[in-house]
Design a protein that fits this description.
This is Phospholipid/cholesterol/gamma-HCH transport system substrate-binding protein. This protein is α/β, with parallel strands linked by helices. It contains nine helices and seven strands; from the N terminus they run αβββββββαααααααα.
Length: 333
Amino acid sequence: MLKLSNETKVGILTVVGITLLVLGFNLLKGKSLFSHNKTIYAVYKNVNGLMPANAVQVNGLVVGSVSNLEVKDKDASQILVTLTITKKIDIPRNSVARISSDLLGTKTVQVDLGNATEYLQSGDTVYAATDGSMTDALKEQLNPLVQKLQGTLSNIDSVLLTVNAILDTTAKGNLQDAIRNLNATMRNFTHTSASLNGMLDPHNGNIQKTFDNLAAVTGNLKDNNQKITGILDNAEKATGALANGNIDKTLQQLQQTANNLNQTIAKLNTTDGTAGLLLNDKKVYNNLQYSLGNLNKLLEDLRINPKRYVHFSLFGKKDKTKPLPSDTAAVQQ
């Protein structure tokens, strides 16, 4: 049996350890030394924190991993990412390798398959695209809210400026006066409500008394219902008698009487008849007045001097004529 020295054993263990270390390191980087892998490249302007060993997925299936990231030609705007595809799949040439992240911030490379008939081979470069990060997504969601908040703050600022402009010294005084007037109005309203409560008092309120009087009136109407019915019956009978009477004939006679009266008045207003002459001719009136005056004098003279008109004298002696009192009064005047 071959005996190995301690130095040989140490050397063998060292080689095995180094081999295992290399294999483990490659495994951690996503490389497999015992399978046929496909390596493709993608160039990004921004990798959003992509790191080696991040998964490469197609339709949610992990088909490989990111093996390396480096700056291309010392240009930091171009980052060359090496993708190792471990699954045996065909990737069309117009496919897009898109960097995305989940809610926890884990980065992955999502390969969106195209529709080309030619497929990528190992060493080819695929189209690259980058999704917005969670921060970008939040910014997109928050930007409208921020704009609305800014508008709201601007409106609040305008309101505050307006309030400050209103609440100057004069405005404060006016506001205090308005508050005092409002207090006075409220006191008046309190007095008014107290008065209303007094009126609405179920025992001594005016409205209750009014309802009581109304109830008394309706009670009287109810008690005198028969009398009221009799009055209405009598009224109905009276109106029926008037309706059944010769009202038309009576009205015609009344109209004829009115016409005759109008004709008589018209004749009195003219000088055709005696009455018209007496009413309208002043000369006739004066003559009549004069005749009446003479008649009165004649009667007065007959009363004073009857012997002037009837003479019974046996001896032929004449009496003296006495003056009329009316003539004496006229002379004295």
